[in-house]
Amino acid sequence: MTSLSVLSTPSEFRSISGLTAVWAAKNTREEIFAAFRRREVYATTGTRLRVRFFGGWNYPMDLAHRSDQVAMAYARGVPMGQTLAKAEAQSPRFLVWATKDPNSGNLDRIQIIKGWTEDGVSREKIYNVALSDERVTATDGSAPPVGNTVDPKRASYTNDIGDTELSAVWEDPDFEPSTPAFYYVRVLEIPTPRWTTHDAAARGTELPTGVPASIQERAYTSPIWYQP
To answer: Which label site among 16, 41, 131, 218 has the fewest CB atoms less than 10 Å from its CB?
Structure first.
């Protein structure tokens, strides 16, 4: 699947539209609907990020840097929206890749969010799997902030921080073969001016009280499910 189609979708919670994107074999009505049926889709808060997400049992750890990464990811695993049907000896590995919108902010990080049920209670954990600017995670898994270049007075920012592309192969360190789980990807951009900041700058007024000057646009993928 090498064609990316981006569809605009309205949102009552934002002043602009969010976006839904599908990975399809061709940019045709039939292939786009087939991608929806496969759930090989992701959404963004309005930015045109490109995101891929695959899961498998025997991905090589250098897959993110190989020229045949997509072909191998399909051959040895499943894309977003699909199910890993059985556990093998090792933990599952996930290939994640994202590239920035040319007209928006650089990338801050890629996260994988894992969900499962334990003792009848829904659990969730966030893993920082790829960070920009050569940052590294702390021992507790947290990551230092990417920084903020937003100038509220001018409603501007610079791409002096962050990366244009991020990728990684990540292995779940907390995998339990007997426990069903799901995994999805969240990609964050560096901070950029919020729409209220643009409005205030255009009108020459102060920012609304209690409203942040910047936001981090983001993308979310369909999950990959694990079923023992």
So the answer is: 16
pLDDT 10s digits, 56-112 = 998 999 999 999 999 999 999 999 999 998 766 689 999 999 999 999 999 999 999
> Burial of 166 by CB count in 10 Å (0-12 exposed, 13-18 middle, 19+ buried)?
buried
Annotate 32-70 with b (16+ C-beta within 10 A) or e (fewer): bebbbebbbbbbbbbbbbbbbbbbbeebeeebbeeeebb
Q: Which amino acid belongs to residue 18?
A: G
Instruction: Give the tens place of pLDDT for each residue, 32-67.
Output: 999 999 999 999 999 999 999 999 998 999 999 999
Confidence (pTM): 0.91
